[in-house]
């Protein structure tokens, strides 16, 4: 199963993660607290870990096109919520 990960530097990692989860929960299964989250899209899964300085995001899907979609949905929504910070995403294959 292909997967990819990114670390996004932000002092508001927990806030943005929770905002993403509340938004996605209107349409897909989501579990979260202040430090971790799991979002189950029909086309892939996303797990997140927040700390004081960054948000770690890991996306996985059955194939590469679905992985690209999962990654794009998460990144686009994060960028909308954190537009003042202009977050930088450097995606790399998950280990």
Automatic annotation (TrEMBL):
Pfam families in alphabetical order: DUF2218
This protein's name: DUF2218 domain-containing protein
């Amino acid at each position: 199963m292909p997967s990819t990960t990114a670390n996004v530097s932000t002092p508001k990692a927990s806030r943005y993660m929770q905002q993403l989860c509340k938004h996605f929960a209107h349409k897909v299964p989501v579990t979260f607290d202040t430090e971790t989250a799991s979002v189950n899209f029909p086309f892939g899964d996303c797990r997140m870990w927040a700390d004081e300085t960054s948000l770690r995001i890991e996306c996985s899907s059955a194939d590469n096109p679905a992985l690209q979609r999962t990654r794009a949905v998460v990144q686009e929504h994060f960028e909308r919520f954190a537009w003042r910070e202009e977050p930088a995403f450097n995606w790399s294959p998950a280990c």
